[in-house]
Request: fold
Amino acid sequence: MKNSYRSIEINCAKNTHEEVFKLITKNKLAKIIDIPCGFGAFIKRLNDAGYSNVFGLDIQNILKFKFSNFLTGSMNEKLPIASNSFDCVVCIDGIEHIDEQFQFIREIKRILINQGELIISTPNISSLGSRWRWFLSGHHNKCKAPLDENNPNPLHHIGMMSFQELRYILHSNGFRISNISSNRIKPVNYLFVVFLPLIILYTALAYKRSSKRDGNKKINKEIFYSMLSPNVLFGESLIIKAIKK
Reply:
């Protein structure tokens, strides 16, 4: 256990690593980078599973083991990586911590090969439970109280993103979503299913009006059904796999 990834602290919601790992390419020779890599738990998991070409990037090296493929860089700036050089990028609970989200996704597109994969997770503020919390308090899940503006730091969730916002940032920058997953669905979240008929009706009417006005019927239909999927409605975290087109 001492040398296993399970011995390294994991700073994300339960089961997130397990679900992300399921989406990773099965090619053990694929060139993969974990951004931000934190203590290195997911890097170690990939190494333990036989992936031999793994890298990690973060603003500072806080890895809990010796690792030669570490790169220092900021998600808010140009990444110190050559273009078209990676098969897969993993970003576990990172994008909600930065303010240059569009720039980051463009950088990911730049460093990925054509048909390269991005697997990204973030707290699911599109879930019915998070929407209910917002209605009551003005705060979403995973950001339940005001951020400490007197002590800003990289751990703050300054850029929480809904599913449709994440889809927009990906699809408008050369990616296409191929899989929508979640780390887990807590049984208590099914209590909010009572609101589902009203949500379906209201959303359908809003999207219909938008389709007539903007001519985006096909896109709205795709988003509508994605928004009504169990992983989006009830999942704790969103886990998205997108392909560079």
User: Anything to note?
Assistant: The chain has a mean pLDDT of 95. The longest strand covers residues 112-123. Residues 81 and 175 are 19 Å apart (CA to CA).
